[in-house]
Amino acid sequence: MLVPLPAPAADGSEAFTQYCGVCHGVDGEGLDGAGVNLLGSEFVRRASERELVEFLQTGRLADDPASRTGRPMPEFSWLSETELPTIAAFLKSAGSSSVRN
Ligand code: HEC
Questions:
Q1: Which structural domains are found in the chain, ordered by start?
Q2: How many whole angstroms separate alpha carbon 81 and alpha carbon 5?
Q3: Which of 17, 19, 38, 46 might form a disulfide with 28, Cβ 3.0–4.6 angstroms?
Q4: 55 has pLDDT over 50
Q5: Which run of H or E residues covers position 22?
Q6: pLDDT by residue (tens digit) across 9-36?
Q7: Which of 11, 24, 44, 96 to mutate to test the pocket of ligand 1 (most atoms within 8 A of CB)?
Q8: Which residues does ligand 1 sit against, CB inside 6 Å?
C-alpha cells in the first residue's frame, strides 16, 4: 500500500483560501454578510497562534457573548494538527502586515 507523503509545509494561504476564503475572502479581507475582515482584526492581533488554533477548533456560536455579527463562525476541529497551526500563522502574518500601530 502506498502511503502518501506529507505535503511540504505550506504557508497556510492555500488552506486559508480553501477553507476560509468563501466567507472571509481569499486574502482575509472579509465579505459583506459573511465572514469579518481578519486583516485588521483586534482578536487576531491579540491572540497567540496557539489561541487561534483553539478558536478554530471551537468556532464561535451566533449567541456567543463575543459574537461581533450574530453570525456563526464554524468550527474546524476536523482539520489536521498540522494544518491548523499553518492557518493560524498565516492569520498572524496577514494581520500584522496590514495593521500598523
Ligand atoms: C461559513 C462562513 C465562515 C467560514 C467558512 C469561516 N468563517 Fe471565520 N468567521 C465567520 C463569521 C460570520 C465570523 C464572525 C463571528 C462573529 O460575529 O463574532 C468569523 C470570525 C472569525 C474570526 C474572529 C475574528 C474576530 O475579529 O473576532 C477568525 C479569527 C476567523 N473567523 C477565522 C476563520 C478561519 C481561519 C477560517 C477557515 C479555517 C474561517 N474563519 C472560516 C464566518 C466564517
A1: 13-98 (1.10.760.10)
A2: 16
A3: 38
A4: yes
A5: helix 21-24
A6: 568 999 999 999 999 999 999 999 999 9
A7: 24
A8: 19-20, 22-24, 34-36, 38, 41, 43-44, 55-56, 60, 67-69, 71, 73-74, 76, 87, 91
